[in-house]
Design brief:
single chain, alpha+beta, Alpha-Beta Plaits, 2 helices, 4 strands
Length: 75
């Protein structure tokens, strides 16, 4: 398993965080998603053999949010 924390700009409310969470958790290989509007961050636990980090960033940015930083853990 691998974990990535994304710094996200463009979230205006808790509903934005829920939108991101629901989009990301539908992706194959994603095990867990936690999105914080207050922190402007999303933490995603995923199987790197199934999902790619760049693909997850693309999913987050589709509705108009911007990923402005990432921290990856695990392998």
């Amino acid at each position: 398993m691998k974990s990535v924390t994304l710094k996200i700009e463009g979230m205006h409310c808790g509903g934005c965080a829920e939108t991101i969470k629901s989009l990301v958790e539908k992706q194959p290989g994603v095990q867990a998603v936690s999105v914080s509007f207050d922190d402007g961050r999303a933490r995603i636990l995923f199987d790197p053999n199934v999902a790619r980090e760049d693909q997850l960033v693309f999913i987050v940015e589709q509705p108009g949010f911007r990923v402005v930083g990432r921290e990856t853990e695990g392998g």
